[in-house]
Amino acid sequence: MCTLEKRGDIFFLTLTGDNEHRLSISLIESILSALAQAKSQATRGSVLITTAHGKFFSNGFDLDWALSAASKSESVERLGKMVTSFKPVVAALLSLPMPTIAALPGHAAAAGFMLALCHDYIIMRSDRGVLYMSEVDLGLPLPDYFSVAYRVKIGSISARRDVLLRGAKLKGAEAVRMGIVDSAHDSAESVVEAAVRLGEQLANKKWSGESYAGMRMSMYPELCGIVGLDVTVKPTPKL
């Protein structure tokens, strides 16, 4: 599952257990609950860092559960449930009243990559771990809100092509070069340390969370619209 811990101004949302952190219905619900808790406890200057135990950040939806169904139609239905259940996580991150940082200790694939991409900043390892959208290799359709997220979050057309249509497995240095990741570091510990340094810098700004969330949503109106967020929210000026 996941835990939420607050240290000073920084919330740490951690996917727990030494496994692939597959985004099952129960894990999705747990992440949503943690994000709601962080939102309810947010103060001026709050920051969220999302990370994970083990060598995976997240290996995407729980395909084993979907494929274990008694029929193909039920498998498709189970996959659809995960796609639908995950959409509110995207909405929650887009509307969260604080800066967000994904600190990846290892692989982030498919919906796990999407989870990372929905943060404001991504920090990953240079020595191991990849970003990978496996849908093209698995022959799975790309959910509509995934398509929009990749279009608005990855500015380079060639980078989007390589991620979505080539199924490229991006290591840290390449992901930084493509502008997908902000920095890459040589261990899981140094990734978290870099995320904390960045989090402390952002927390020191003492920004209004409401204003920050409103500005973030105004940057991605199409993505907000497709996940059901009201993009007419107006930030409150800092007085």
Automatic annotation (TrEMBL):
Q: In which pathway does it act?
A: Lipid metabolism; fatty acid beta-oxidation
Alphabetical list of Pfam families matching this protein: ECH_1 (PF00378)
Q: What is stated as this protein's family in its record?
A: Belongs to the enoyl-CoA hydratase/isomerase family.
Give the catalytic activity. a (3Z)-enoyl-CoA = a 4-saturated (2E)-enoyl-CoA; a (3E)-enoyl-CoA = a 4-saturated (2E)-enoyl-CoA
Organism, per UniProt? Rubus argutus
The record's keywords, sorted A to Z, are: Lipid metabolism
Q: What biological-process GO terms show up in the record?
A: fatty acid beta-oxidation
Task: List its EC numbers.
Answer: 5.3.3.8
PANTHER family recorded: ENOYL-COA HYDRATASE-RELATED, ENOYL-COA HYDRATASE_ISOMERASE FAMILY PROTEIN
For this chain, one GO molecular function annotation is: delta(3)-delta(2)-enoyl-CoA isomerase activity
Where exactly are the transmembrane stretches of this chain? none
Q: Name one GO cellular component term.
A: peroxisome
Give the protein name, as stated in the record: Delta(3)-Delta(2)-enoyl-CoA isomerase
